[in-house]
Design goal:
This protein is an alpha+beta fold. The protein has 5 helices and 10 strands; from the N terminus they run αβαβββαβαβββαββ. The chain has a single domain, classed as YbaK protein (Alpha-Beta Complex). 25% of the residues lie in helices and 30% in strands.
Length: 164
């Protein structure tokens, strides 16, 4: 017997917007390197699977949380993230802070449907693909969608924020 899991806020946002998307689920077992697990389980190129990272931006008045979305094959360039958002510096946010702000657990943070909508930057490499995969709001759930839809629904800026 197959049990259907409840939706997530990310899936609710996509459904309400009426955009085309595909969900990809797999049995999650990793304790870290969640992106690598996704790539291995789904057999998708690591430059098409994007991770959602929460950072703290300073130099814009008061520190604020922001989101960077980059390929799992690389890293978030914090200096470039800060520059894309007009800040002086960005540092990775504490995991507990990221979870509280987003409403998701680390490894399942989606750029969509976050409890508190944060300024978001999507790495420009995403725009070279017809579809990319991002977390659907829980570990073991990815959403495949057009990157232009992600930009629109997340209110994201597109910039070069990833590095190898």
């Amino acid at each position: 017997m197959t049990r259907r899991r409840a939706g997530t806020p990310a899936l609710d946002v996509l459904t309400a917007a009426g955009v085309a998307f595909t969900t990809h689920e797999y049995e999650h077992t990793a304790t870290h390197h969640f992106g690598d697990e996704t790539v291995a389980e789904l057999g998708v190129a690591s430059n098409r699977v994007f991770k959602t990272l929460v950072a703290t931006l300073t130099g814009t008045g008061r520190p604020e949380l922001v989101v960077g979305v980059v390929p799992v094959s690389g890293q978030l360039d914090l200096k470039s993230l800060a520059a894309a958002l007009g800040g002086k510096r960005a540092d990775m946010a504490d995991a507990a802070v990221a979870q509280r702000s987003s409403g998701y657990v680390v490894g399942g943070i989606s750029p969509l449907g976050q409890k508190t909508r944060l300024p978001t930057v999507l790495d420009s490499s995403a725009m070279t693909y017809p579809t990319i995969l991002v977390s659907g709001g829980r570990r073991g759930l990815q959403v495949e969608l057009d990157p232009a839809d992600l930009v629109r629904l997340a209110g994201a800026t597109v910039a070069d924020i990833g590095r190898s």
